[in-house]
């Protein structure tokens, strides 16, 4: 499998470290924080299809990436900077309030 780093170009999987699902961490100040953190930590779905994952470019630019990968075929559908994804999520959350 090869991942196209937005900073370094296409690289071998060996240069990256996998962290896990790229899910949004619950707000610790929310009224249901305990239940939300339990779900966040223990109740993950095993998606058969496109899924967002966090990858770290350890042997390259040291960037965190959000990789959308089809779990059935391992095809990489999209790669974005984790920073870019976080900013977009903040923007959406800010307009929803």
Describe this structure in words.
The protein is an alpha+beta fold and 97 residues long. It has one domain: Folate-binding fold (2-Layer Sandwich). 26% of the residues lie in helices and 34% in strands. Strands 3-4-5-6 form a four-stranded antiparallel beta sheet. It has a two-stranded antiparallel sheet with strand order 1-2. The longest helix has 15 residues. The model has no long low-confidence stretch (mean pLDDT 91).
Outline the fold blueprint.
Layout lengths: L1 E4 L3 E4 L4 E5 L11 H10 L7 E7 L7 E7 L5 E6 H15 L1
Antiparallel strand pairs: 1-2, 3-4, 4-5, 5-6
Summarize the amount of helix as a percent range: 25-40%
N-to-C CA distance? 40 Å
**Biggest sheet, spatial arrangement of strands:** 3-4-5-6
Strand content: 25-35%
State the low-pLDDT regions, or none: none
Individual helix count: 2
Structural class: alpha+beta
Order of helices and strands: EEEHEEEH
Which key phrases capture this entry?
26% helix; 97 residues; four-stranded antiparallel beta sheet; Folate-binding fold; alpha+beta; two-stranded antiparallel ribbon
């Amino acid at each position: 499998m090869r991942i196209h780093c937005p900073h370094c170009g296409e690289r071998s999987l060996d240069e990256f470290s996998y962290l896990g699902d790229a899910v949004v961490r619950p707000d610790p100040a929310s009224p249901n924080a305990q239940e939300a953190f339990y779900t966040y930590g223990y109740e993950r779905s095993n998606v058969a299809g496109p899924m967002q994952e966090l990858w770290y470019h350890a042997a390259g630019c040291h960037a965190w990436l959000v990789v959308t990968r089809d779990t059935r075929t391992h095809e990489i559908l999209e790669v974005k900077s984790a920073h870019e994804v976080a900013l977009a999520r903040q923007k959406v959350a800010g307009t929803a309030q």
